[in-house]
Structures are given as structure tokens and as C-alpha cells.
Amino acid sequence: MEYQSSKSAVLQLWKKFGGSAFGRWTVSKVVAFKAPYFRSIKPCFAEVSPGRVEVLLKKRWGVTNHIGTVHAIAMCNAAELAGGVCLDVSLDRRFRWIPVGMEVKYLKMAKTNLRAVCEYPDFASIQVGDVVMPVGVFDTNGEEVFHADITMRVSQRPTNK
Predict the structure, then answer these.
(1) Region 60-69: what's the mean pLDDT?
(2) In this predicted structure, what is the pLDDT of residue 5?
(3) pLDDT band at 8 (very low <50, low <70, confident <90, very high)
(4) pLDDT digit string (tens) for 110-131?
(5) Are 82 and 54 in contact (CB under 8 A)?
(6) Cβ neighbours of residue 16 closer than 8 Å, sequence gap 6 or more
(7) Membrane spanning segments where (predicted)?
(8) Among 117, 118, 141, 154, which residue has the least CB neighbours within 10 Å?
(9) Phi (first) and psi of residue 14, to 5 degrees
(10) What is the pLDDT of residue 4?
(11) Rounded-to-integer distance, Cα 126 and Cα 145, Å
(12) What is the pLDDT of residues 21-57, one digit of tens each?
């Protein structure tokens, strides 16, 4: 069966508005409005394309823990956002998805602003079943401080009758 490119609303918004700082901010706000829990981390998309999504997370008081580093759950949120949007903008339009699990590794203390990156270059081969979206979270020195493997369940989109 031949891959049918995504018709993701996020991808369409990104193509239209992602070329400017204000546009990237606007797309980020629209996504967070649709999935309100992500507003807690105030994410900003830096890149959205099939097979690759990058989300920026500023280190600020609202996402820190008792020792002044970015809280683990804030990084989980950024990872889930990057992985979910990456799958959404990459997935064959005949399919839909939902997260069903996440395995995380805290590699270093997150002391700076962060960048969550999900790359899935073989996206055209995704079929029905579970797919693992890998997400690395990097500090401003380019060091990976957190890693998540997010299992997404892909299913056939119901056909309209």
C-alpha cells in the first residue's frame, strides 16, 4: 500500500506560519490550546516537518523542582509533545494514533533551557500497531539530559460513510 502524506492541521499551520518567530509562537499556542495540559510548560516549536519535530522549553521557575533544575515531568511533557506532533505530521493520513506508554531515562541534571527532539526518518513505513517514537532532550551545551521512548498505538482511521 502506498504512503499517503499527512494532512495534519499542525503541519498545515506550520507551513503557513512557521517561517517567523511570531508564527512559531502562534502555532505553539494553537497546539497548546488544543491539548491544554501542554500549556504548563509553555512550549515553542522550533521545527515541524515529517520525520522531525523540535520543541523548545525555557527553564523558568514554573518548571523547576526543589533543587532548581527542570522538573522530570516538565521534560516528560516536552517529550510527549515532540513525539506526538512528530507522529501526527508524519503519519499516513489513513491512520490515527494515541500514546500508550513512555519509558524515560534521566541522564543529567537539566540546568538550562532545553530542546526536545523527535526524529523518525522512516515514517513512511509506519503501519497499524505500536510504534516507538524516540525523543532526546538536550541542554544548551548540546548534551542529552533526558531520553524518552514513547509507544504510540497506530490504528486505521474510521472511514466516513
Answers:
(1) 96
(2) 64
(3) confident
(4) 999 999 999 999 999 999 999 9
(5) yes
(6) 23
(7) none
(8) 141
(9) -60, -45
(10) 61
(11) 28
(12) 999 999 999 998 888 889 999 999 999 999 999 999 9
With beta carbons less than 8 A apart as the criterion, state whether 110 and 137 touch.
Answer: yes
**Spatial distance between the Cα atoms of 140 and 115, rounded to a whole number of angstroms:** 8
Nearest partner of 124 among 153, 98, 95, 151, judged by Cα = 95
User: Residue 85 in contact with residue 35, Cβ under 8 Å?
Assistant: no
| Partners of 147 in the β-ladder | 105, 136
Inter-residue contact 24 to 35 (CB < 8 Å): no
- Answer yes or no: are the C-beta atoms of 157 and 95 closer than 8 Å: yes
Dihedral of alpha carbons 62, 66, 69, 72, sign: negative
Mean per-residue pLDDT for 93-114? 96
Distances (CA, A) of 33 to 39, 93, 125, 142: 7, 22, 30, 29
- What's the N-to-C CA distance of the chain in angstroms? 22
- Cell readout for 135 is 525523543
